[in-house]
Design goal:
Blueprint: H1 9-30, H2 39-44, H3 51-62, H4 65-78, H5 86-107, H6 112-119, H7 122-152, H8 159-207, H9 211-220, H10 239-256, H11 258-265, H12 270-279, H13 281-301, H14 311-314, H15 322-331, H16 337-372, H17 380-405, H18 411-435, H19 441-464, E1 474-475, E2 488-489, H20 526-545, H21 562-571, H22 580-599
Helix pairs in contact: 1-8, 1-16, 3-8, 3-11, 3-12, 3-16, 4-13, 4-16, 5-10, 5-12, 6-7, 7-8, 7-16, 7-17, 7-18, 8-13, 8-16, 8-17, 9-13, 10-11, 10-18, 10-20, 11-16, 15-16, 16-17, 18-19, 18-20, 19-20
Length: 601
């Protein structure tokens, strides 16, 4: 049978309208207000944004289209354990708001990497900024390609045309509208994402026989067994690795990533930024839980005939195609409804990509172009034009790399390589900087090298060693195309944080050569391991170099978290004048802060 479902003209009109509206929002902010003429307006939205668009932008930047099509399948295959991640994730978000966010406002920086120069030095700033640029370009390519891949498998959408059209539209409204345009476009796209999920719920819950039947079937299928207190590091989801991953991942993403921090810097005060970040927990929790619960509904619907095992009839081979498959097979009879859901899925990707594009142009301008052009003063107008050109350039690079990603066997491998290995080491160097007065640039760079090497090695091994974690059983006894009374197979995949993709279904066959033990641990441990080894390496370098004998920044440094300053005040009523090293550090830092005052936005 033909596995493709042809979209009607009404569906294409609906998809086109969503792109037109997104573009119109960007154009609106180009010709209203201050018209994006200054870097403060273009890159930081004038630092006068209201809380609501910032909260919604934080939400959809965190949760992309891969969440909508991938997270339900994690619950489908491994049960509801992964939903528990919301508890430590919320804790980590609040900790990032209280501990890390105030530092950026106190230092009056435009990027998180400016802080690194103030605290450690230029080499650290440039190294981490360059790494961020490379990481985000590749990550955007994966985010753009993932929904295109899933939808093209079950519809007549062209992969090439979809990548080019959606990539160019996103780049255009990001370039003309600046951060303010991106924030309000994210509000519109978040509404589409929620609407898509609500529509799918209305049809799927009814087909599944109601909430009671979903609960009963999920319980019988072991999908509701969520509490696993095992200390086995090879178990995919346990209470221990969920807590560790949730806290480390959320603090790293909301506290150190320019993509999220830039949204907070668009607000006028520290309190508003902290309040926005804490409030974002609510929509993130709602959207994420909806995706997880949808997995239970899908399991109830396909409990007797797994769509992957019934590939001959469904035409799909990957679990990240199940949600698109359900949409086109159940909603195609209602004109426009399939197109609306497809628009909601793509909105998840566009919101993430636009946020990344805006952050990339900001980092490039603030961390590289402006410092290199100190002798030639750049006007605000020229800087804005450069930032707009960079948004278009990075968008084109995203499109090009998306075609390259199409040649990669596993999108999961790319996600793990680009996101998982960076969270722990990055969080470690920021925590040392804001919670401690120790640690020179050499110590920090040594820790980064060790941390990235460790997580890169383990992450690569987990993805490419060939070892698979067995999932809960799936049934094919109700499939008419399979001549068997009951077939149970274990399915396997590897995932990264809240961004989930799926691998093809394969029976779990014991490997001839058992992989190295570190390659068998759960991917949930990658970020915590990176944090641990980076901190250990930094502390080791501090001991070896003897820099533990003195403080590299003064007690009243703007780089220190308010919690650190409170602890210092309570333990030391009078701060001594300081060693010569401290005085030299203070002089250097004050000089740099004066420079920041001159070039700041």
């Amino acid at each position: 049978m033909d596995p493709y479902y042809h979209l009607g003209w009404v569906d294409y009109v609906v998809i086109g309208l969503t792109l037109v509206i997104s573009t119109a929002i960007g154009i609106t902010f180009q010709f209203t207000g201050n018209r994006q003429k200054t870097t403060r307006e273009y890159l930081l939205a004038g630092k006068n944004m209201s809380i609501f668009p910032v909260v919604m932008s934080i939400t959809v930047t965190m949760l992309s289209a891969v969440t909508i099509i991938g997270t339900p399948m994690e619950t489908y295959r491994f049960g509801l354990k992964f939903a528990l991640l919301l508890v430590p994730f919320s804790i980590g978000t609040v900790l990032a708001a209280l501990i890390i966010t105030p530092v950026y406002f106190n230092c009056r920086v435009s990027t998180t990497y400016e802080f690194l120069e103030i605290r450690y030095g230029k080499t650290t700033r440039y190294a981490v900024s360059a790494l961020f640029i490379l990481q985000m370009v590749l990550f955007m390519s994966v985010v753009l390609y993932a929904p295109v891949l899933a939808l093209s498998a079950v519809t007549d959408l062209s992969i090439e045309a979809s990548i080019i059209v959606f990539g160019l539209v996103c780049s255009f409204y990001c370039a003309v509208g600046g951060l303010k345009g991106v924030l309000w476009t994210d509000v519109f796209q978040s509404a589409l994402m929620f609407l898509c999920l609500v529509i799918v719920y209305v049809f799927s819950v009814q087909e599944a026989g109601g909430v009671t039947n979903v609960y009963k079937t999920s319980s019988e299928g072991q999908r509701l067994d969520v509490f696993d207190f095992s200390v086995d590091f090879t178990t995919r989801f346990t209470i221990l690795n969920i807590m560790a991953k949730g806290i480390v991942g959320s603090m790293a993403f909301y506290g150190t990533s320019q993509v999220e921090v830039q949204r907070l810097l668009s607000l006028s005060t520290i309190k508003r930024a902290q309040w926005s970040l804490c409030c974002s927990v609510i929509p993130v929790a709602v959207l994420y839980l909806m995706c997880n619960m949808l997995g239970l509904v899908m399991f109830t619907i396909f409990k007797d005939c797994d769509p992957i095992l019934d590939k001959a009839n469904t035409g799909i081979a990957k679990y990240d195609q199940v949600i698109p498959y359900y949409i086109v097979t159940r909603l195609h009879s209602i004109p426009g409804l399939t197109g609306l859901c497809i628009a909601g899925i793509f909105s998840g990707s566009l919101s993430t990509i636009s946020s990344a594009l805006n952050s990339l142009s900001t980092v490039t301008v603030i961390d590289f172009i402006k410092p290199m052009c100190k002798t030639e003063k750049l006007s605000d107008t020229r800087v804005v034009y450069i930032a707009k050109a960079l948004s278009i350039l990075f968008g084109i690079l995203c499109i090009c790399f998306a075609f390259a990603v199409a040649k990669v066997d596993s999108l999961v491998a790319v996600n793990n390589a680009l996101i998982g290995i960076t969270e722990g080491p990055m969080l470690a160097i920021y925590l040392v900087g804001i919670l401690s007065r120790k640690g020179t640039q050499k110590c920090i760079l040594f820790g980064l090298i060790v941390g990235f090497s460790m997580t890169g090695w383990i992450g690569y091994g987990i993805v490419f060693s060939g070892y698979h974690s067995p999932s809960l059983p799936v049934d094919s006894s109700g499939c008419s195309s399979l001549n068997s009374t009951s077939i149970f197979q274990n399915v396997t995949s590897a995932c990264d944080g809240l961004e989930q993709c799926a691998a093809e279904v394969t029976p779990v066959i014991p490997a001839k050569n058992d992989p190295f033990i570190l390659y068998k641990i759960s991917f949930m441990w990658i970020a915590p391991i990176g944090l641990f080894f980076t901190l250990c390496a930094v502390f080791f370098a501090i001991l070896v170099t003897g820099s533990w004998r003195y403080n590299v920044i003064p007690a009243n440094s703007k780089c220190l978290s308010p919690i650190t300053k409170l602890w210092i005040r309570r333990t030391r009523l009078h701060e001594p004048p300081g060693t010569p090293e401290e005085q030299a550090a203070l002089t250097t830092m004050n000089g740099f802060e004066r420079t920041i005052e001159v070039v700041k936005i």
